Amino acid sequence: MVPAKVKHGSLLIGGTLSASAYKTTRELYLPLGAEEGTNILASLRTKNGYFIDHDFAVGMVVSLEHESFSTAVEEGEDEKFRRTMLLFGPFTRYYLDNGVFGELSLEIGLLNFSTGQKTNLFQGGLGIGYAHFINEKIALEPILSFRYFREWEGEKSNVTLGPMLGFGVQAYIWRKRAHVIKEAL
Prior knowledge:
Layout: E1 11-26, E2 35-53, E3 56-74, E4 77-95, E5 100-112, E6 118-130, E7 132-133, E8 138-153, E9 156-173, H1 178-184
Antiparallel strand pairs: 1-2, 1-9, 2-3, 3-4, 4-5, 5-6, 6-8, 7-8, 8-9
């Protein structure tokens, strides 16, 4: 196993595929009141960053997310709603020497509907992961994060909270071995 120390000036390039399933409540665009249902989300996220200090990276995340919501309307009958969203924003990561990292991301987006209405989107994530370096430059990264998602227009909103499980592959450009960094420190 390759040690996880990453030097200042390295680049982080890669992405994560995540999925989650939630019980959720929706009230946006529902004149008869809120409804409860099941929300399944698949997310493809690209993460590119720069190490501003040893083991501390900041960068940009872009997420393409596909959501499927189903709710029971009558006995044995479900109503389904699907959509795809694009969000972007900053993220930051800090690595421990053993490969464990913490990650914080904040993303925004906007949905445009054919009726001309615009729905604002905000997503925040706080997670913990593990970078398993298969060689000096490439890491396989499972991550467990807590996701907060909100979409709103005016006074009404939909909010989703819950865990998200993901798996990523990252390339670390200009990364040096841990012993080289420790000698320089």
